[in-house]
Amino acid sequence: MSELSSSDPSPWILRPSRAEIRHTRVLFYSRHASDLTPARAQRFGYSVVYHASIVAALRELGLTVAVGSDPELLFTEIDADYLWFTLIRAPFDGHELLIPSIAAYRGLAFLGPAAPVRALSEDKALGKALAASLGLEVAPHRMIDPLSPAAADLALSGRWVLKPRTGVMSEALAVLGCAADWAPALKEAALPVHGGREFIAEELVPGLNLAVPVVEGLPPLSVFEERGVGADNILTEAGKEGRTADYGSRPYAGPGAAEAAAAAAALAAAIAPFDYARFDFRYDPQGGRLVFLEVNMNCALGPAGVVARAAALQGIDHRTLVGHIFTHSLRRQRSPL
Predict the structure, then answer these.
(1) In this structure, what are the phi and psi dihedrals at residue 76, rounded to the nearest 5 degrees?
(2) CA distances from 159 to 139, 141, 181, 204 (A)
(3) pLDDT higher than threshold 50 for residue 4
(4) Measuring CA to CA, how many Å separate 204 from each of 140, 232, 274, 281, 287?
(5) Domain ranges, ordered by start, for the chain
(6) What are the residues whose beta carbons fall under 8 Å from the beta carbon of 251, sequence distance 6 or more?
């Protein structure tokens, strides 16, 4: 990441040229793209609002933007030059790798890293392995197949968080505080609705949730603290989506912030290029312990999200942020027009 030498971010900001705007057709693909209405937002939460904000920002930049949510679009000729996608839910493991693979095969520029790097975001175990290889601490964890006969008798001492090994929305998350909690949690994880997915059990580290947004080409952005549910301070899917009131966030410069920023910088250097991402940690103020949780390379980029709010603190409005990310992404994959 660049060193911040002044409070003016303009030297770093990229904007699409007139030729790039004229000669780049964008396909915005997401589950909700074809119906970005208030009614759908009421039903499905903040994702719909944020997707609509991206489409609006791209169009305000002057780009020609088509939208699509039908998976069959991905298996036909894609009538676009650039693919902006936000696929974070699909009924199979590895879905985050699908679109980058298809786009790369067709020589199409797209948002985010190549599929092998994106796997670090899709698979929590891989992300933790990368962090550990860089000397960062990760909490004790283990992979669990809920359908395995061995899972029926599994119960670990201490406090643990059980969640799907893949995915970014904290769905099907459970906090296990004692041995008696394991059997019902694993029974729930084995239900057909979870598609036979593997789960990861991670020792619960007490303390703060710290998120570090990184936008390639911009100076370091502010660390944010995210507040979750109860004494354990757990972030839930419903809270992230805005469907419940158990989520909050704010800029954070207290103990652990500098360590989280340094850790995120090391991770960002290891996985570049990726356009933008957020790196999530738990920080225990009592012991001064910073633990890496995961990296999300397709995190919310709407005005209310951590990335956009961190950029706004540096005077970068939402449309400018979207334009910078788009231009950076396009030019690293295609020569400037």
Answers:
(1) -120, 180
(2) 12, 12, 10, 6
(3) no
(4) 9, 8, 29, 12, 14
(5) 10-112+316-333, 141-203
(6) 222, 223, 224, 225, 309, 310, 313
Q: Give the type of residue at 296.
A: N
Q: Are 280 and 139 in contact (CB under 8 A)?
A: no
Question: If one looks up domain 141-203 in CATH, what number appears?
Answer: 3.30.1490
| Res. 143: pLDDT tops 60 | yes
For domain 10-112+316-333, is the CATH number 3.40.50.300? no
User: pLDDT band at 2, cuts 50/70/90?
Assistant: very low
Which pLDDT value is given to residue 168? Answer: 65
Distance CA 299, CA 318 (A): 15
SS3 letters for the chain? CCCCCCCCCHHHCCCCCHHHHHHCEEEEECCCCCCCCHHHHHHHCHHHHHHHHHHHHHHHCCCEEEEECCHHHHHCCCCCCEEEECCCCCCCCCHHHHHHHHHHHCCCEECCCCHHHHHHHHEHHHHHHHHHHCCCCECCEEEECCCCHHHHHCCCCCCEEEEECECCCCCCCEEECCHHHHHHHHHHHCCHHHCCCCEEEEECCCCEEEEEEEECCCCCCCCEEEECECCCCECCHHHHCCCCCCCEEEECCCCCHHHHHHHHHHHHHHHCCCCEEEEEEEEECCCCEEEEEEEECCCCCCCCCHHHHHHHCCCCCHHHHHHHHHHHHHHHHCCCC
d(CA 117, CA 274): 8
